[in-house]
Amino acid sequence: MYQKPNRLQIIWFSFAWLPDGDKNIGLVSIISFLISFLIRTRNFWLILFGGISLLIF
Question: In this predicted model, what pLDDT tens digit does every residue of 22-43 receive, in sequence order?
Fold first, then answer.
């Protein structure tokens, strides 16, 4: 019986079918997006690192 895939399965399937160069770019983008949340801290170096990551993303 057919089951509708959940969001994680859809994202993984989409990511798995990318060419190798685009996988690397996508992985860097996702990591940079997650690190960009460090902007909300009070530590200056983490804010700077988060800002640079946000620019990369």
Answer: 778 778 777 777 777 777 778 8
